[in-house]
Amino acid sequence: MKIICIGRNYAAHAKELDNPIPKAPLLFMKPSTALLKDNRPLYYPDFSKDIHYEVELVLKISKQGKHIAPKFAHKYYQQISVGLDFTARDIQAKCKEKGHPWEIAKAWDNSAAIGNFIDVEKCKAADQSISFSLNKNGQQVQIGNTKNMLFAFDQLIAHISSFFTLQVGDLIYTGTPKGVGPIVIGDLLEAYIGEQKLLECLIK
Ligand code: ZN
């Protein structure tokens, strides 16, 4: 399986990091070894002094496809969760400055925490939107809603599948809203869709 992540999919987050608002979805990938499952703790890696959390809605691909049209994209996923795209912001800043690839800042072991999956249809509000949030040590630090995405799920799937075959089990991290910030050892992160807690991660 592969993990495809979207950068800068919420205007307010692009702004907080002084990034331009993209005209097309910004993609990067993480290998399967980046997955951190079953609410396991994250051991703070020794190569960075500035790891940030980024809470994101994550889609699980349920059907293989390539060149998927936006109007058919909803047929390719049924389950959703929240994930944490852990980012070594200090390394990322150096990569960006030099125009280098991002993998060492973004795709390291356990950098993609993933929660329990639930049915997409069951977490939609009356207006079809999905809200999600992150608590750090019991305080809400990020709140997001699909209404504020620059590129909606179906546009993302169409765009991604124009380059990469999507396979069953692939995960799409759909971007983080504003409020990203650093973690320290001892922090407890808890991520929710609506009121439902789907992910917990202790920093060790
Ligand atoms: Zn992210």
Describe, in plain words, how this protein is organized in 3D:
With 204 residues, the chain is an alpha+beta fold. The protein has one domain: Fumarylacetoacetase-like, C-terminal domain (Fumarylacetoacetate hydrolase, domain 2), CATH 3.90.850.10. Helix content is 14%, strand content 34%. It has four helices and 15 strands. It has helices spanning 11-16, 89-98, 103-106, 153-161; strands at 3-7, 26-30, 35-36, 51-53, 55-61, 77-85, 87-88, 112-114, 118-119, 131-136, 139-145, 171-173, 181-182, 188-193, 196-202. The strands form three sheets. Strands 1, 2, 3, 5, 6, 8, 9 and 12 form an eight-stranded mixed sheet that branches. A four-stranded antiparallel sheet has the order 11-10-14-15, with no helix packed on it. The chain has a three-stranded antiparallel sheet with strand order 7-4-13. Residues 5, 7, 54, 56, 85, 173, 175-176 line the site of zinc ion (ZN).
Strand and helix layout:
Layout: E1 3-7, H1 11-16, E2 26-30, E3 35-36, E4 51-53, E5 55-61, E6 77-85, E7 87-88, H2 89-98, H3 103-106, E8 112-114, E9 118-119, E10 131-136, E11 139-145, H4 153-161, E12 171-173, E13 181-182, E14 188-193, E15 196-202
Parallel strand pairs: 1-12, 3-8
Antiparallel strand pairs: 1-2, 4-7, 4-13, 5-6, 5-12, 6-8, 6-9, 10-11, 10-14, 14-15
The structure holds zinc ion.
